[in-house]
Design a protein that fits this description.
The chain has 153 residues and is α+β, with helices and mostly antiparallel strands. Helices cover 19% and strands 35% of the residues. It has one domain: Roll (2,3-Dihydroxybiphenyl 1,2-Dioxygenase, domain 1). It starts with a strand and ends in a 21-residue tail after the last strand. The chain binds methylmalonyl-coenzyme A (MCA) and cobalt (II) ion (CO). Methylmalonyl-coenzyme A (MCA) binds next to strand 4, helix 2, strand 5, strand 7 and strand 8.
């Protein structure tokens, strides 16, 4: 398996605004709109640095996995995510290697990506995510493409 790049580093925060403060001060601006991912129990805000994102995660409810994480560890590094070309192939290789995949099938990720997670105990205390972006979405994907520019009327 070839990891293509460090896709994102995710930081858990109590709220997106609280979590944003240091990154705004560092001169970054949020990319696109905040996303609510109910299946992950999270609100997500992304800040881009080249090809990599800082992904802020805030819990959407008291029983969210992010809320559980904050209760145990407080705000901080939640996971690192590596980009792969083909998520099914990458999961197959991980399964063969005996790595503890947390998902049987790819899950829906931010901005239309597909993701799978590996247990943090295996990752030396770091939850690891594998992420595949759709073809043509390797770099910056505008949240709302400007259809006028494409000549569609
Ligand atoms: C989709 C979007 C995107 O990028 O597009 C995202 O990233 S969404 C990101 C949010 N989604 C996810 O995280 C989905 C994958 N996560 C999970 O399935 C789960 O959270 C989990 C299996 C990692 C942990 O669940 P759990 O019920 O076992 O929780 P526990 O609290 O009992 O955790 C078990 C042990 O793992 C540790 N632990 C839990 N979560 C983390 C973490 N993020 N990083 C490092 N260690 C962690 C706990 O401290 C505990 O350690 P000890 O035993 O020493 O006390
Ligand atoms: Co992520």
């Amino acid at each position: 398996m070839k990891l293509q790049l460090l896709d994102h580093i995710a930081i858990a925060a109590r709220t997106l605004d609280e979590g944003s403060a240091p990154y705004l001060a560092l001169g970054l601006t949020p990319e696109g709109a905040d996303e609510h991912m109910a299946a992950q129990g999270a609100w997500i805000r992304a800040f881009r640095i080249g090809d990599t994102l800082i992904e802020l995660l805030a819990p959407d409810s008291e029983d969210s996995t992010i809320a559980k994480f904050l209760e145990k560890k407080g705000p901080g590094l939640h996971h690192t995510a590596y980009r792969v070309e083909n998520i099914e192939a990458a999961m197959g290789e991980m399964r063969e290697a005996g790595a503890p995949l947390l998902n049987d099938a790819p899950q829906a990720g931010r901005a239309g990506s597909r993701v799978a997670f590996l247990h943090p105990k295996w990752g030396q205390g770091t939850l690891i995510e594998l992420v595949e972006h759709g073809h043509g979405a390797q770099k910056h994907v505008p949240e709302q493409p400007d259809l006028r520019a494409g000549g569609i009327h």
